[in-house]
Design a protein that fits this description.
The structure is a homodimer. Chain A is an alpha/beta fold and about 425 residues long. The first copy, chain A, is built from 16 helices and 17 strands. The two termini of chain A are about 50 Å apart.
């Protein structure tokens, strides 16, 4: 079953809201064995909607529309579809009854604009929308299906789950497919592609691989289609294992795993406590760590040591070390990490200092120079990063880098 | 100038990531006087990309593509476009030089896959991408323009801002339009809509108003189109002043102003120093404050007091106060703010403690109960928030709330 998704609404094209319906519908169709071959977004214009429905019909078996069914006058999808399918309009009693009952519950009567909503194309099978006023519509033409749903996400989801997908499954043969994502951190897309090429070059034709890089993290997604989901799952698992065997030290998790979640798990499982000492990241690392519910089990807190005086007073970094080596130096981050451990009574500490940018660099230490130290009472390991000039991207990159190296430190030392 | 946007990538169609590029590009084009007539999303397939470029060319003057330009083999946009424009490929020395320099800074050499990235269609004008490896490409055919950009949002944005839009403005006639955004914080969309309705109800037909709410902030955007930009600017300014007159205490800035930037400006102008004491926000407030370049002029740093022991040891919150009132209480945040001031030698301090969720609430203090205290050596003011159960949304909301109330505190007390 090939699917094309059409989302309708001016607000999607002028950037007033981010279109989340396509991602939800795409995942839902894919998981049920359909293939989304394309998606399009069009404003509230008659010509546009008709043209995009036509495009969808040409490349797919099923066109799923969301949007343009509300009671306001910019919502014109219904009339466009009636015309497209050469259909009359007729008052749909069942829908009107449902609306009257719905409004009764709120102690109100339907407005004239709601009555207008009950005129439906006679060519359509009406899909009951228990989450809102506008019903869905199911059209068929030459073996192809066009379904129109409201744009409000929870109304669309209700119809997809309760009306549309059950009917599609009856009518079409689905191509089972299975996806698995390998979560990596520590190097770039190209290095990974290079290192796993012996596996990816030998993938059968029914496999797809995708690399999704994001500031120090790269997701590697393997997908396969075939006839039997159980067989596919095993095949994908086997190839995933082959990929992981090439880059074992880079893999921190799978699918929806996050760096901060995985770090939390390893800290918790070893019964370790962590404290942070951040300069240039200004609290971002703490924010990431505490984004995980239950992080108080392993995170004590820490110092945002933005001013040098705070590094000295609150972490015990010797003033002479700052004078001699500068605040952005290996020596200073080592002292910061030590101060986090001793002053916060933690097992593990991290110190971060750098020039986040976009200004503030020197010839010796250009913008983007970052030092990190991670240690416990026995060992300390340091890292130097040379990043770009975008302040917020640098901070996010350092956050990912630090979370990953903290994870690696725990695994190496405990 | 009519624009069609094509976003490329399997990950967009199977729902692995939400497509945010369309919204950003749509807003950016609209603000510059272009009209986005449609958008489409296609997977990493040659036929699909070519077909959607064709569809875009049919309905628009300009087709903007993002995605499918990385060095890995799932990225095929470049070859599809070369074929579409009957173009040879040739090694692009400038791009290779740029890559070599970029990698030199990281102490690495380009990989073979990067060298591959430097083969470019000779029919394209190459657009330098200072944020990543893959350059943009500008094609022309029969007066129409096709631009290809990377899918990584900040690389795409860089190219749109520095290369693409400046060139489009030279080549196409835009419908003159002027927009101005009023930045507010402190109340919700409906309250604002109500309070400014006397102004918005009387807007001429060539005006548009939009409300863009986001976690404690609401942007009110006024826009107008017409023939003369200078006249429009004056008209919009006058209406903006009318709106602001209705809600003066809610307005913190205009257009690209941020709460953290405006707070920084008022602190700097008064020569004041700030320190933070965060529990449930875990460093997020510090992160927001230090997201501003130059924040070291007024931000000293602070404590992430996640564990209660840290609140006691590092901020001097009496243990008895925590025992008696609980860590999430007015009494504790007042002591945290005082501790931030006295121990960090700052003029102003803030203490935050709450139950960020999704679990951890009690009957008396349900999830989403948050206390804040803002003070100096003379006055302390406290706030209680009752938010929802979404941890990350709560944290972001508190961040916005705290930044705004810090701004108000400075204006009221200095």
């Amino acid at each position: 079953m090939k699917v094309h998704i059409v989302t309708i609404g001016d607000e999607l094209l002028i950037g007033q809201i981010v279109n989340t319906n396509v991602a939800w519908m795409g995942e839902y169709v894919t998981l049920h064995g359909g293939e989304v071959v394309g998606a399009s977004t069009v404003g509230d214009t008659k010509d546009g909607i008709a043209r995009y429905v036509q495009t969808g019909m040409e490349e797919a078996d099923v066109v799923l529309l969301s949007g343009g069914l509300g009671p306001t006058k910019d919502d014109i999808t219904k009339n466009v579809l009636a015309k497209y399918f050469d259909s009359e309009m007729a008052f749909h009693e069942d829908t009107y009854e449902r609306l009257c009952k719905m409004f009764e519950r709120f102690g109100r009567a339907p407005l004239p604009s709601h009555k207008e909503q009950c005129y439906m194309p006679t060519a359509a099978k009406i899909l009951t929308n228990k989450r809102g006023t506008a019903p869905g519509m199911w059209f068929e033409k030459e073996g192809k299906v066009v379904v129109s749903m409201p744009g409000v996400p929870y109304e669309m989801k209700y119809l997809m789950e309760h009306e549309v997908m059950p009917a599609l499954i009856k009518q079409f043969t689905m191509q089972p497919s299975v996806y698995k994502t390998i979560q990596t951190a520590g190097t770039g897309e190209s290095v990974i592609a290079d290192r796993i090429s012996s596996v990816t070059d030998a993938l059968p034709d029914n496999f797809k691989v995708a690399f999704l890089p994001n500031l120090g993290k790269v997701r590697v997604r393997l997908g396969a289609y075939g006839d039997d989901v159980e067989v596919l799952k095993k095949e994908v698992e086997a190839r995933v294992a082959d990929v992981v065997a090439q880059i074992p030290e880079l893999v921190f998790g799978y699918d929806a795993d996050s760096l901060e979640g995985v770090l939390g798990d390893v800290l918790k499982s070893k019964g370790l406590k962590l404290a942070t000492a951040e300069s240039c990241t200004g609290g971002y690392l703490g924010h990431r760590i505490t984004g995980v519910s239950g992080s108080s089990a392993y995170y004590l807190g820490g110092v945002i040591a933005y001013a040098n005086a705070v590094k000295v007073d609150k972490l015990g970094v010797p003033e002479t070390t700052i004078e001699k080596h500068g605040a952005v130096s290996e020596e200073v981050v080592v002292e910061m990490a030590k101060g986090a451990i001793s002053r916060y009574k933690s097992d593990i500490g991290i110190g971060i200092s750098g020039i986040a940018g976009p200004t503030g660099g020197t010839e010796e230490k250009p913008v983007g120079t970052i030092w990190l130290a991670i240690g416990n009472n026995k060992n300390t390991i340091t890292y130097k990063l040379q990043l770009g000039k975008d302040r917020l991207k640098n901070i996010e990159y350092i956050g990912n880098f630090a979370l990953n190296k903290l994870r690696v430190f725990v695994l190496d030392n405990y």
